[in-house]
Amino acid sequence: MVYFVATPIGNLKDITFRAIEVLNSVDVIACEDTRNSLKLLNNYNITKKLIAYHKFNEKNSAEGIVKLAKENKNIAVISDAGMPVISDPGAILINKLIEENIDYTVIPGASASLSALLLSGFDAQTFTFVGFLDERNKVRMEQVRKIKDIETTLIFYISPHNLIKDIEFLNINLGNRRACLVNEITKVYEKVIRFNLGELPEFQIRGEYVLLVEGKSVEKVEDTDSIEQELKQLLKTGMAKSDAVKYISTCRNIPKNKVYKIALNL
Question: Which residues pair with 192 in a beta bridge?
């Protein structure tokens, strides 16, 4: 069996009993970066043969893993953090396993995108996961063209060195939409920053970010129900009522007293 195992996205305790059990039972663990994976494995006293499986050797390594599986070896595939395949290596291997009719399964766990979506307070009923914007301008323009008219919450992954560039790019191509930056999820310095794309907030660049951007607005008259719903979403994240009122008033460009009256009834 080949197991695709989710690993913690920050706090090392965010791993399931089943994941630890599987990592202890397999013959080989395929890691995105063996140095990073050792921090997790050493923390749980897991000692196994490690092999590298990353984007630079993905094709060759996938063939090696298939060979091991045919030799009746059990293999676990892990990424540096979160779920393999999701903006991480693994897709080539899965297709190869399907072609070769080799069994594989998923050991679920932590997800940066879903955790950030919850922390943002944005609409979580429907959303679109975009992942990383491409470094090549022509390709990223095509990426944005495909999503600019989508009305659901958009979820991006952003590397620290691209943070300001990507936000400015999205502001130019999507407009001054509401946004939320989340990073250091599950860690001591977990940060949630709500802002508009056209007004960069002050922040200290630290690690990778999840950026959430509201979908394309549908032309409609501001109504009490939608304001009440947005207030509830923000309050669920721990935002103070006064701050939530101010935030909605600014983003929707409506009188603060109108939002405040609705907030009093919650």
Answer: 182
Q: Which residues, other chains included, contact 87 with Cβ-Cβ below 8 Å and sequence gap of 6+?
A: 131, 132, 157
Q: Which residues are CB-neighbours of 109 under 8 A, at least 6 positions away?
A: 5, 6, 7, 8, 14, 15, 16, 19, 82, 83
pLDDT at 45: 97
**Distance in angstroms (rounded) separating the CA atoms of residues 127 and 124:** 6
Q: What pLDDT is stored for residue 56 in this prediction?
A: 86
How far apart CA 179 and CA 65 sit, in angstroms, is: 40
Q: Are 112 and 157 in contact (CB under 8 A)?
A: yes
Residue 90: closest CA among 75, 71, 101: 75
- Strand 178-183 and strand 75-78: pairing? unpaired
pLDDT digits (tens, 9 = 90+) for 20-45: 999 999 999 999 999 999 999 999 99
Distances (CA, A) of 59 to 94, 119, 235: 11, 36, 46
Structure tokens at 95: 């297709």
Q: Which two tokens stand for residue 24?
A: 């202890």
Burial status of residue 99 (CB atoms within 10 A of its CB: 0-12, 13-18, 19 or more): exposed
Cα distance between residue 146 and residue 135, in whole Å:
17
- Is residue 82 a contact partner of residue 6, using CB atoms and an 8 Å limit? yes
Pairing of strands 49-52, 178-183: unpaired
Q: Give me the pLDDT at residue 220, please.
A: 46
Residues of the chain with pLDDT under 50: 219-221
Going by their DSSP bridges, the two strands 28-31 and 191-196 should be labelled as unpaired
211 C-beta neighbours (distance < 10 Å), count:
24
